[in-house]
Amino acid sequence: MTGEPQADCLFCKIVSGDIPATVVRETDTTVAFRDISPQAPTHVLVIPKAHYPDAGSLAAAEPQIAADVLREAAAVAAGDKVDGTGYRIIFNTGSGAGQTVFHAHAHVLGGRGLNWPPG
Ligand code: 5GP
Ligand code: ZN
What we know:
CATH superfamily: HIT-like
Largest sheet: 5 strands, antiparallel
CATH class: Alpha Beta
Number of helices: 3
Helix content: 25-40%
Bound molecules: guanosine-5'-monophosphate, zinc ion
Distance between the termini: 31 Å
CATH topology: HIT family, subunit A
CATH architecture: 2-Layer Sandwich
């Protein structure tokens, strides 16, 4: 796994600009954009620009970029002012856990009560 863009990957197309998104933050290695189907007042996806299928494979290949994703997730929460009330960072991994896009992404959810354990 090299991190190269994949032609059939939705999030690689958001990175390249071929598919538009509401971008809230961008760095050399990451993009953060609002989820098209928000499940909370704040629902932002933070992705590495490099293509890895899930968070674990990203962390194994590019630990610094995995750290960038986490730092940016926290910055998104602060930017939306949900850090005070609490927020959740989620990496769905595998279809059985609800992963539908196989380009690593962190969901940042906040702005409402968040039950534990999640469904
Ligand atoms: P997963 O289910 O893989 O954990 O999360 C994928 C997320 O991508 C879903 O929450 C879904 O709403 C979001 N999504 C799917 N297609 C698009 C799109 O074209 N644009 C944006 N901004 N989000 C998308
Ligand atoms: Zn991709």
